[in-house]
Amino acid sequence: MSVNCANPAELQPPLPTLSDHDIEQHRPYLLRYALIQLRNADEAEDAVQECLLAALQGRARFTGSSSVKTWLTGILKHKILDTIRRRSREQPLAPPDDDEGSAVETMFKADGHWQEMPATWGNPDQALENRKFWEIYEMCARLLPERTARVFMLREIMELSTEEICQECSITPTNLWVILHRARLVLRECLEIKWFGGARS
Amino acid sequence: MRTCKEISMLLSQSQERPLGPLERLAVALHLLICRGCANFSRQLEFLRVAARRWRDRDDER
What we know:
The structure holds two protein chains of two kinds. Chain A has ten helices and no strands. By secondary structure, chain A is mainly alpha-helical. Chain B contains three helices and no strands. In chain B, helix 2 crosses helix 3. Chain B is elongated.
């Protein structure tokens, strides 16, 4: 048998179909991802299960333009969003966490100045390469009260717009912006104290 | 004159909506003279980058 090299189709082998293992092996990663977003073991399990099922059934749709992991994560994000939508229908956003307001009030003086001026962080992007930083980051993220954390996650992780979040959570844009601002203030302060060292300028 | 408390809130909001011209002016002027808020502004950008990176990073644990 000879290969006709003049025919471009002969030069590109067809993309091999993904095996069950190719897909299933990512389950632990997907579970961690879902757990972090949903903070609920059962819902995370379900979302991952639905994701893997969809991937196994739709494996022909994998084009190879990204890695398998990235492709699966994309499917999972949709399943997570579905779960969140279902949740907010069954269980509207909890009332404001008790300490939601106070955290922010203590960060400013009565005259509107910072209690503690945000320090210079230098070149913070370097921290992103450091595993210890991520441990600190996750610890700080866990400081957020539940309602704040959920809204923050919808905005920063799922990247929903203001309109989308307001619709999902039945809050006004102003509510949303206040919650996000609080989350950022709390996170920022925690990271400064625990990592960036607060080199007071 | 806007306070740091108000400016910091505007800086946060600028991550979700475009600020109006007067708001942008108030923020720009304030950042010229307030190092704390200037730092906060940069840190807000970092927080966003960090959140996305946390979401996307490969798990090396």
